[in-house]
Structure formats: C-alpha cells, structure tokens
Design a protein that fits this description.
The complex is a heterodimer of chains A (about 45) and B (about 650).
Chain A (H helix, E strand, L loop, with lengths): L2 H15 L6 H20 L1
Helix pairs in contact in A: 1-2
Chain B lengths: L2 E6 L7 E6 L3 E7 L5 H13 L8 H9 L20 E8 L2 E8 L4 E3 L8 H4 L1 E3 L3 H6 L11 H5 L4 H56 L7 H57 L2 E2 L2 E2 L5 H42 L5 E3 L7 E3 H100 L1 H32 L3 E3 L2 E3 L1 H48 L4 E6 L5 E7 L4 E5 L6 H19 L5 E5 L7 H18 L2 E7 L7 E5 L3
Parallel strand pairs in B: 3-18, 7-17, 17-18
Antiparallel strand pairs in B: 1-2, 1-4, 3-19, 4-5, 5-6, 8-9, 10-11, 12-13, 14-15, 15-16
Classes of the chains: A mainly alpha (about 45), B alpha+beta (about 650).
C-alpha cells in the first residue's frame, strides 16, 4: 500500500467531513477500493 | 435590510398574519398571555431550522420536538399548524431572499426552506426550553457543566466522529474475518493430522488383510460361494417382501375399482329411471321424441287458436252492445231520461245505462284476460317442449358417459389388475421356491466350511469394510481442506492469504481511524477556541463585573471565575451553585457565543420570554449591548415581551434611551 493511496483516502475523508451531512456510502466505497487494492498487491 | 414574516394558519393564528422586523435594532414582539408570541417564535424557528430534506439529525430532532417545531408521539399535530386547518405556511422574506415552509397538520412537508440550518435550534434562540438553560438548570440529561456537545454536535467534529465510528466498525468486521481465517487454518491443520492418522490405520489394515489371505487357501472358494448364497438369500427375502407389498397394493386397487363399478351401475339405473319417468302431453320416456312433440304442439296450438277466435267473436258482440250503450250514455249527458229508441216505450235512465256499461266492460275485460292467458299457453308449450328435450338429452348423455366409464373400469379390472395380481402370485411362488433351495444349499456349505473359517471370514470382511470407510474419510477431509475459503467483500481467499491481506487492511484502517479521530479533536479544539474567544469579547462588552474567565476548559467543561467579596478576588465557581439570575446571564453569554461561532450567516437571534427574569440593571445592560450588536452586525434580534393590556400581538422597535 503506497503512502500516496492512504493520503488520497484521508483527503476524501476531509472532503466528506466538510459536507453538511456525511455520505457513509462514499466512505464505504473508499474502503472497498482500498481492500481490493491490497488484495491485488498481496496476490501478485 | 428588513424582514417580513407571513404566517398562514400557524399555531393560534387562523388565516393570514403579517409581521415586519427591522434589522439593526431590537424587535419586541408584544402580546398578552395566549396572544400568539409562541406561534411567531415557532414559525421563525421552523423556517430557519427545518432542513432542506426534512431530516433532522437525531440530536437536533430532540431539540425540534422540545421547541414545538416537530411533532412527537404525544403531540401528533406537529405543534405547529392551526388545529382547524389542513396545513400551515410560513414565508420569511429578507431583502430579496424568500424562504417558504409549508407543512400539513399531520407533519407531512409540502414545501421546505432551502437555506435553513438545523443548528439554529441550538445556537439561535434562548428560551426556557432551549438546551443551554435546561442544562444549566440541570433539567437536561447532560451534567450542567458538560459542553462537549457544543464543540462536537455543532462542528465538523461530529462528521469526523461519524466517519471514525464507521471505520472502527469496518475494522471490527475485518478482525472477525481474520479470526475466522485463523480458525479455518487451525481446523485444516487438525484435518491434515486426522488424514495422516487415517493413512497410518489404512496401511495397518492393508497389512492385516495380506496376512489373513493365505489362511483362506483351500476353502476360500467355499467361503466365497457361501457369501454369494447368503447375499442371494438376503436379496430374495427383500424381493419377496416387495412382491407381497405389490400384491397387497394391487388387491386394494382391485377392491376400490370393484366398488367404483357398483356405484357406476347404480348411477346408470338411477338416470335410466329418471329418463323413463319424464312425461309431457301423454308421452313418456323414450317416446318423447321431437317429431311427435312437434305434431302434438301443432294440434294444441290449433285448438287454442280456435278457442281464442271464438272468444274474440264473443268479445266483438259484447263490444257492439257496449258501443250502443256508450252512445246512449253520451246522448243522455244533459237529460235525466228519454224513451227507448228501439221500442219507443219505457224510460232510459242515465244510472241504469251506467250500470249496464260497467257489466259489459267487466265481461269484455274477463274475455280479454282469457285470450291473453290462451296466448301465453301457446308460448308455454314451446318452453315445456324445449325443457323436456333438454332434460332428456342431458340424461341420455349422462347415461352414455357412465356406460363408457363402466367399460373403462371393467377393462381395467379384467385386463390390468387381475392379470397383475396373477403375475405377482406366480412371482411369489417362484421366489419362495428359490429361497427354499438356497437355504438348503447354505446349510450344506456351512457344514463343509466349519465354524473357525467362518470366524476368519467375518474378521476379513470386517477389515475390508474398515478399509473402505477410512478411504472415504480421507477423501471427505481432503475435500474440506481444498475448499476452505474466506469470503470478504465478495472476494474468495485462501485462509493464509486472507490473514496476510486482512493484517495489512487493518493496519491501514487503524491509521485512518487515528486520522479521523485526530481531525475530530482538532475541530473540537478549534470550535472551543473560537467559542472561548467570543465569550471573552462578550464579557468585556457586557461588563458583568462579578464574572471573569467564563470558558470551556480542556475537557470542554464550563469553567467560571466569580468575584468573591470576602477575599476581594476571583474564585472558581461551580455551575450548579450559580443563582437563577446568574444562570440566565451565563446562558445568554453562551447562547450569543454559540450563534457567533456556528451560524454567523443567519442574521437572527431570538430571546423568548427570558428578559423579564433579569434584574433591571442587568436587563438594561443587555438591552444596550444587544442594540449595539444589532447595529454593528445588522442582526435582527427578536425578543418577546408579555404585556398586560389586551392589545393584539404587534412588533415594536426598541432603542435604549
């Protein structure tokens, strides 16, 4: 997992937290993508 | 920039009610008790706080219910719309911006404001029901000095907390999956050990079987033959049982079909009797054919027509006489009597003619009725013939159907059931003979083999069986090991790989949780700093000498220092030990600070029913401060005031003298 990827999720968290209401579906999507990236990296 | 507020069927107001508020000054809403002050405040709160999608955050929903903006279980009429109206409407116009809030009596939204902020419920109003005063007076769930909510629920910290909780939940799930993978690895390890043991046992059994084999030399053929006969006897026994069951089933079927046949015959007899008893115009049963019936019909209709003609003749005669009498009656209209025109004797009187006319009329009507009856009889003949033919055809069809059914059932009984029963009986006899023969053969073989070899055979067979069972177990367990997979987010992984991936995933999740929590704390601290800073400025401006250093501490608890005349200095003061008036003062300071911290963009501040509780000196200071604040910030400050006089509700602009 690259630092850049984690930084990108943190940035997304910042954007979502600054909305009037948090869209947890978007957080869920971020985590799904994160999981799939790790699966890909570890499977190679 | 002034604001106009229009209420339509809100609270106590039925119909339309207009209010106007000036920015940059204090707007006193004056009314006597039950004069509508609360309705005006609720309307402003509604239009400024109900979210654009109508969904309050749970924490703020409680406030909306407390302040009568939203319905609750006890207050189903929304506490908002006039009780006699289907819906209510609030229109707030500030400069060129117009906000509309329209809601039904049952709470269903019809139109929602677009630029509202639900945090207004916690930051834009101070009343005896608002959060800060409830808390300071300890009538709320939170402890009087615990203002963690003020820096969390109103700031972005709430959102970061929510995200952190979501990721924590995800991490919990991932940890559970990691445990599942570990358990699966443990289980597959156990299975491998079990397989190893099975293989060892299998090897041992194979060796034992090899050791036993030479002992069969000489007699192994007999033993094998005995085994074959024993198996055959077992099979013959099973077959015999099966054949007996089949025989019973067919015998039962035969009985049922025979009963069915009896019933069919009964039905045929019954329908035939019914057919025989059908009768019309002296014709019975099979003689009821359409041709004969048509002939009879013609004859009958002809007879009736003759009778009708004869009746019409009689009626014609009566009609003639009737017409004569009628003519006489018409001519006698204006005279009492006259001589008979035929014999020129006797008197004809009006009364007598009238009686005669009545008699003739009755006769005419009676004959007409008889003619009508005869005509109906002609129609009836057609119906009777059509019905009887239908009945006859119906019965004949039923008889024919039943006869066909009887033929089918009889064939089934004779050709299938009886033949099958005979066949089963033959098979049973054959099997019984075979069984008897095999049993004799077995007895002879047992004599030849002897009991020792018989025991040896039993042990050998048992070992072979064990060998088969062990092979099966090894296959099943190996399959279980091969198919052990962990399903995560629709991805199927081997347990080892799952642990490797989940460990990395949890590591990143931990970092993200830390980040969200840290950001939440930063947001809380920033909100507290801004809040404390605002309080400091307010304290300077209000110049309340008895208080100093009112602020939220590191734990976001309210810290107050108060002047102590005994020591001639300032000492920390517990919130719970403040007097009623002091609590109100602190509440006002905190409320204005909340408004400035969180909703500076909304130019409204409401002080509902609280100003009269301050002592005069402090009240004047507050009025002066608020008046200056309204001017500086161009705020619309609304205060409610109870007045004794029975004047309708009105708004007064107030400036300190």
């Amino acid at each position: 997992m690259k630092k850049k990827d984690i930084f990108s999720i943190k940035k997304q968290i910042d954007i979502l937290a600054n909305e009037k209401r948090v869209d947890l579906n978007k957080i869920n999507n971020e985590l799904s993508t994160l999981f799939k990236t790790i699966v890909k990296e570890e499977s190679e | 920039m002034n604001a106009s507020l229009v209420l339509k069927d809100i609270g106590g107001f039925k119909g339309k009610k207009d209010f106007s508020f000036e920015s940059g000054s204090l707007n006193l809403v004056e009314a006597p008790n039950s004069g509508g002050k609360s309705s005006v405040i609720k309307a402003i709160l509604g239009v400024l706080s109900v979210p654009h999608d109508g969904k309050f955050e749970p924490y703020l929903l409680k406030e909306a219910k407390m302040l009568g903006v939203k319905s609750d279980d006890l207050n189903t009429q929304e506490g908002f719309v006039n009780i006699h109206s289907e819906y209510g409407e609030v229109i707030l116009t500030i400069g060129e911006d117009k906000e509309i809030y329209k809601v039904q009596q049952n709470g269903t939204y019809l139109e929602l404001p677009k630029h509202s902020d639900q945090r207004f419920l916690l930051s834009g109003i101070l009343s005896n029901d608002t959060k800060i005063l409830r808390q300071l007076r300890h009538t709320d769930d939170e402890e009087p000095d615990d203002f963690h909510w003020a820096v969390t629920k109103l700031s972005n910290a709430k959102n970061y907390d929510e995200i952190a909780d979501f990721i924590i939940n995800e991490k919990d799930n991932a940890t559970k999956k990691e445990d599942e993978a570990k358990n699966t690895i443990k289980r597959t390890k156990n299975l491998r050990e079990e397989i190893d043991q099975h293989r060892k046992d299998l090897e041992q059994i194979t060796n034992e079987l090899s050791r036993l084999e030479p002992k069969f030399k000489g007699k192994s053929d007999f033993i094998s033959k005995r085994k074959g006969i024993a198996n055959s006897i077992e099979k013959s026994n099973k077959d015999l049982i099966q054949q007996h069951a089949n025989l019973k089933q067919k015998t039962d079927e035969l009985k049922a079909k025979e009963n069915e046949l009896v019933k069919i015959n009964k039905d045929i007899n019954s329908f035939e009797n019914e057919l025989e008893n059908l009768e019309l115009f002296d014709l019975k049963g099979k003689n009821l054919n359409p041709k004969k019936l048509e002939e009879i019909k013609k004859k009958k209709i002809s007879d009736i027509n003759e009778q009708i003609t004869s009746l019409k003749d009689i009626r014609g005669e009566i009609d003639g006489v009737y017409n004569l009498y009628y003519l006489a009656q018409t001519n006698l209209k204006d005279r009492d009597f006259t001589k008979c025109p035929l014999c020129n004797e006797g008197n004809l009187t009006f009364g007598k003619i009238e009686i005669k006319l009545k008699e003739l009329k009755q006769k005419k009507d009676s004959i007409s009725n008889e003619i009508m009856e005869k005509s109906q009889n002609i129609k009836l003949i057609d119906t009777q013939i059509s019905d009887i033919i239908k009945n006859k055809e119906n019965l004949e069809r039923k008889i024919s159907d039943k006869k066909e059914e009887r033929k089918f059932t009889s064939d089934l009984i004779e050709k299938q059931l009886r033949s099958a029963i005979n066949q089963f009986n033959e098979t049973i006899t054959g099997l019984s003979n075979k069984l008897e023969k095999e049993q004799k053969e077995l007895q002879e073989l047992i004599k030849i083999i002897g009991s020792d070899d018989e025991e040896l055979n039993r042990v050998y067979t048992e070992k072979e069986k064990q060998k088969g069972t062990l092979s099966d177990k090894i296959t099943i367990k190996q399959n279980e090991i091969d198919s052990a997979k962990i399903e995560i987010n629709q991805v199927s992984l081997t347990p080892d790989l799952a642990i490797q991936i989940l460990s990395k995933y949890n590591e990143v999740l931990t970092e993200l949780i830390g980040f969200a929590k840290e950001m939440a704390d930063k947001q809380r601290q920033a909100a507290a700093d801004k809040f404390n800073n605002t309080i400091k400025i307010l304290m300077n401006e209000l110049n309340f000498e008895e208080f100093r250093d009112v602020k939220l501490n590191k734990e976001f608890r309210l810290y107050i220092e108060r002047f102590d005349p005994k020591t001639d200095g300032y000492v920390p003061q517990l919130v719970s030990t403040l007097s009623t008036s002091e609590k109100l003062t602190i509440a006002l300071i905190l409320q204005i600070a909340l408004k400035e911290t969180y909703i500076p963009q909304i130019p409204f501040l409401i002080l509902d029913d609280v100003m009269e509780d301050f002592d005069e000196d402090r009240r004047n200071k507050i009025y002066k401060y608020l008046s200056n604040k309204a001017k500086e910030e161009n705020w619309i400050i609304i205060l409610t005031k109870l007045v004794e006089e029975k004047k309708p509700i009105h708004v007064v602009n107030w400036s300190p003298t």
